[in-house]
Design goal:
Immunoglobulin-like, Rossmann fold, 2 domains
Length: about 290
């Protein structure tokens, strides 16, 4: 498992009965987590001193209960800064486990000793975009949500990247990739974090089980003659690490060589020493 263990402003304090107790900077949040199938004693006093609690509804969805939480606050990861705010379906605007991937590809970018062009698809609030840009890459950030792209721009400015070579695109990712192929554009690295289900800005429906293989096949056409990496993130239960390895091998390795490694990604839990699984990632490298 790849573990995001270099955080200072974030931690999973404890887990029990379908929930995770987290510290986001100076604030304590309690959120549901489908992986927490155990019910263990809640000994940490932080369980009783929450700033916010997201209550999951048995009918689906849920709602936040706030005790003492600002509308927005910031946390840092190394030399990056991210604005956070509680919004729909338990989210805060950041997936801290992805730091394991940020560290991996940032090292590759720095060690490449050449200009690297990165395409970040389904790019959300720009964690990977900021990490890649901070490492020295030029980045094309694509997301169908105008609000998410605006949020990502704010994170870039907060991280000292206001003048970085980042291209911000609000578009359906599939249609954007198709146009980039027609334009003859290429990238040295591609990052994608596709949702299990979603809609594009014009109502385009995305179902990952149906779309992920043809989309990887499409994206590999955008890789340059000397590609650096190809990263696929998944929070969909059916896309286990072995499935990601096969999908990427079928399309990327067969056309560009290199090798694939896929693992679960996770976060350490401070109170019990467990590693909380948080999805999976498939990583391709040329060498």
């Amino acid at each position: 498992m790849w573990i995001a263990e270099n955080w200072k402003d974030y931690e999973v304090i404890d887990t029990s009965n379908g929930e995770k107790l987290e510290r986001w900077g100076n604030y304590i949040l309690l959120r549901p987590d489908p992986q927490v199938l155990w019910d263990t004693p809640k000994k940490n006093p932080a369980w009783k001193y929450l700033n916010a609690h997201y209550h999951r509804s048995k009918k689906g969805g849920g709602e936040w209960e706030f005790f003492n939480l600002p509308e927005q606050w910031s946390i840092h990861y190394k030399d990056l800064t991210f604005h956070l705010k509680p919004f729909s379906f338990k989210h805060t605007g950041l997936f801290p486990e992805q730091a394991a991937n940020w560290d991996w590809f940032s090292d590759l970018i720095r060690q490449a000793n050449r200009p690297i062009k990165v395409l970040n698809l389904f790019a959300y609030t720009g964690g990977a975009t900021c990490a890649a840009a901070k490492a020295g890459a030029s980045v094309t950030h694509v997301d169908a949500s105008k609000g998410m792209v605006t949020w990502a721009k704010e994170n870039a400015v907060a991280s000292g990247l206001s003048d970085a070579p980042i291209r911000w695109i609000v578009d359906d990712c599939v249609k954007f990739v198709e146009r980039e192929i027609r334009r003859g554009n290429h990238y040295d690295a591609i990052i994608m974090d596709p949702p299990s289900y979603g809609r594009g800005p014009k109502g385009e429906i995305w179902k990952i089980e149906e779309k992920i293989h043809p989309f990887i096949a499409l994206c590999q056409q955008l890789l340059s003659d000397d590609p650096l990496f190809f990263l696929v993130n998944s929070y969909t239960t059916g896309l286990a690490p072995a499935v990601l390895t096969y999908l990427i091998s079928t399309e990327v390795v067969s056309n560009h060589g290199g090798f694939v490694e896929s693992q679960e990604i996770g976060l350490p839990v401070s109170d019990n020493g467990l590693i909380l699984p948080c999805g999976a990632a498939g990583r391709w490298q040329k060498i």
